[in-house]
Amino acid sequence: MIILTGVFMERLFLETALKDFINTNSGNFVGKEIALRPDLAGMRIFAEPLIGFAAAEDPYFAELKKPGIIGPHFLPPREWLPGAATVISLFLPFTETVKAANRQDMSWPALEWLHARIEGQEFQDELCGYMVTLLKGAGFDAAAPMVDPRFVRASPSITDKTEQGFYTSNWSERHIAYVCGLGTFGLSRGLITAKGVAGRYLSVITTAIFEPDKRPYTGIYDYCTRCGACVRNCPAGAISLEQGKSHPVCSEFVESTREKHRPRFGCGKCQVKAPCESGIP
Fold it and tell me: What is the pLDDT of residue 267?
């Protein structure tokens, strides 16, 4: 039962509903008809999530419009949804099965990881739709930028794929997760959470009011120890201690995996076999 008080929604109800969906929905398991190997049929993709909440008027959302963070093309919550009160962010950690497989050959993505990247994205889209439907069914408005037709994956002002700024969208799931208190960035540009860096993010904006989470950090790199594991792991040489991650170099390698495994692609070597794989170092 949903317990409502005015414009507030019970957090426990929402979190329980989301975890139940993740634990039981068939989209979170590799289907027999699409499994890249027979033994991968039924493989679970995501473990239980971390969930964070931020007020839609959190001043950090305005910071994301600054050049060098995301840029002026970033759309803050109330541009996606008038009357927005809360932003809800989820980190979906990959299961140990997915992570362990991708630790084996550090030169090429495991088939388990390819499923997690592509079928995992399909499940994320489905979960976004479920969250929106759940909130609207409770009498609130909601929007999920990831599946919104207004979502743009690259900066519209930059067309050169060799520039870092090309790889900025008008809604960044990792930056949203940072604002919602889920974690801080690492050298690989991934977000290090209490359940590690190996996983995926999604978010929903809603008019429902939830108590915002207090960020347990002050700096954007607080959880990164700069140990260099992701630098050593990257098969493309796209990460350095001095400059962090080069998106163009990373993208070129990922495209090479698409050529072999189309329509699937991926890598994720910077997210495994490192102290931040499954927790905060």
Answer: 98
**CA distance between the termini of the chain:** 39
Residue that the structure tokens 């033994």 belong to? 39
pLDDT tens digits, residue range 195-243? 999 999 999 999 999 999 999 999 999 999 999 999 999 999 999 999 9
Q: Specify the residue for token string 């995926």.
A: 200
Query: Distances from the Cα of 87 to the Cαs of 157, 173, 213, in angstroms?
Result: 27, 11, 11
| Whole-number Å distance between alpha carbons of 169 and 172 | 6
User: Do residues 50 and 163 lie in contact, with contact meaning Cβ atoms separated by under 8 Å?
Assistant: no
Residue whose C-alpha is closest to residue 87's, from 175, 148, 154, 192: 175
Q: CA of 67: how far to CAs of 74, 157, 233, in Å?
A: 10, 12, 30
35 is written with which tokens?
């499994």
Residue 1 — very low, low, confident or very high, per pLDDT cuts 50/70/90?
very low
Q: For the chain, what is the radius of gyration of the CA atoms?
A: 18
> Helix crossing, 11-24 with 111-137: angle to 10°?
140
- Tokens representing 76 are 């803050």
Burial class of residue 259 in the structure, from the number of CB atoms within 10 Å of its CB (0-12 exposed, 13-18 middle, 19+ buried)? exposed
Enter the tokens of residue 191.
């977000």
Task: Give the integer Cα–Cα distance in Å for 103 and 105.
Answer: 6
pLDDT in tens, 128-146: 999 999 999 999 999 999 9
- What three-state secondary structure class fits 153? coil
pLDDT bin (cut points 50, 70, 90) of residue 7 is low
How many helices (DSSP H) and strands (DSSP E) are in the chain? Answer: 8, 10
Give the H/E segment covering residue 203.
strand 199-206
